[in-house]
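Input/output pair, single chain:
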Amino acid sequence: MTIKPLTALYPYQQEAYDKLKRLKVGALYMEMGTGKTRVTLELISLRLRREKIRQVLWFCPCSVRENLAQDIVVHCGELPECIKIVGTESIAGSDRVYLECLDYVADGQTMLVVDESNMIKNHRAKRTERICEISKKCTYKMILNGTPVSRNEADLFAQWYILDPEILGYKSYYSFAANHLEYWTVKLPSGIEVKTDKVKNVLHIPYLTEKIALYTYQIKKSETGVALPEKRYHTEYFDLTADQALLYTQTRDDYLMAFVDETDDTAIYKMFTALAHVSSGRIVTSAPVERMQTADIFEDIEKNPRIKALGKVLDNIGNEKAIIFAKYQQEADEIAELIRRRGGTPAQYIGKIPYKKRIESIQAFRGGTQYLIANKACGAYGLNLQFCHNIVFYDNDFDFATRAQAEDRIHRIGQDQVCHIYDICGNGTLDEFILNNLQKKENMVAAFKRYIQEMKNKKVKGKKFVDRETAKSA
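Output:
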C-alpha cells in the first residue's frame, strides 16, 4: 500500500524532508504549528513506495489521537489503513495494547513514530520501557516534538535511545548520567551528604548536540518564513475582597513559617497552590504540612472577583469563539456555570472527562458551541483550532512550555486572523509575579525561590489572623 499526501510542502518542510529522507532514524524538533505531521507523512510515503516498510505504528498522547487522525485526513484525503495510531499512555496502562503493538511490529517492516516524544523522557517510566522494546523491532523510526528538551538535556537520553543507542553512545542511562549529569545533594542531620535524583547541572552539552545534529531537523515558527497573524495580549486585573486579601496574606505567612528551612520544589509548589486557591476564591482549611483541603469563600460564584473579571473579558470577546484555560476542576465547573447563566452552552475538554466525551466537546466547539473550557494537561497538546482566535487564561502556573503550547492551539499555520490572548490577574497577588516571569521567559521555579527568599527576609509586623470559619463573604 502507498499513500500520497495531497497538500504541498512549504519550503522549510521540504528542507526537513530532504535532510531526513536518506536516514533510517531522525528527529523533527519543529515548533507547534509548523507541520511535523505533514513532513512525517512525506517520509512515510517515500518508504512505502520503496517498500522499505509496509505499515506505521504512530504513538501520540491519548488526548490528541482523534485530532492527529483528522490532520492526516486533511493531508491524505483519508486515514490510510497502514497507519495505526496508539495512545502513548495506553502502552503502559494496558498489557493487551502492549502485546498487540509487539505483534504489529513483529515482522520488522513497521516504521515507528513517537509523537510528542517528551512524554517518554523518563527512562524509568513503564511507557518508555515498553516503547523501547517495540522500537527494537523497527528499522525506521522518528521522534517528533516541539523542542529537544523541556527541562534539561537529561530529557534526551530516553528519546534517542529509542531511535538508536549508538547515536549518543550509551547503552544505559547510568553510563549517560555518569558522564553528563551532576545531581543536587542534601546534608543529613549527621552531616553526611546524600545525592538526590534531581539534576543540578548537565555536563558536556556540546558533545550531545554534535551527536544528534546529523539526525535532527529543528525550526521555530519565527524561522519558517510563513507569515502568521500577530498575537495581541490583554490583561484583565481585579482586586481581592478585603477578607480575601487578609486570608491571602495569612496563608502566605503560614506557609513561609512552615517551610522556613525548605526551598525544594515540593514546598514551593504547595505554597504556590495555596495562594492560587485563595486568589481564585477558596480558603485553605488545612495546615501547610497536611494534605491540602479547601472550601469556597463565596456562596455565589458571581461575587468572586476572578469570575467577575472573566465576565468582563467575555463581554469584550462578544459573539466570537474562545478557549478558556483553567487549572482546577472546580474552576472549570464555575466557569461553565457562569457561561450557562449568560445563556451559553459550554463544552469541556478536561482530564476527568472520558476520551469520547472530550472528542464530542471538540466537535461541538467546531460547530455551534461558543466556548471550550480546557486545562493545559489536555488542551495544550495536539489540537488544531485555527477557526478560533481568542484564548483566555483564567489563571497561570509555572510552566512556560505548556503555556506556549496552549497559545499554539490557535496561532499556527492556517490561522488568518489576529489572535487575542487574555490573562486574568489579581492585583497584589502571585498572578502578577507569574505573568512578569512568563513575559521574561524566566525559569519559574528559580524565580519563585527568589520570591520566597525575599518574603523570608522581610519582618512580618502586625500580623493579623482571621477565623477561617467566619471569613466567608456573603
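The mean pLDDT is 88. The first strand starts at residue 25 and ends at 30.
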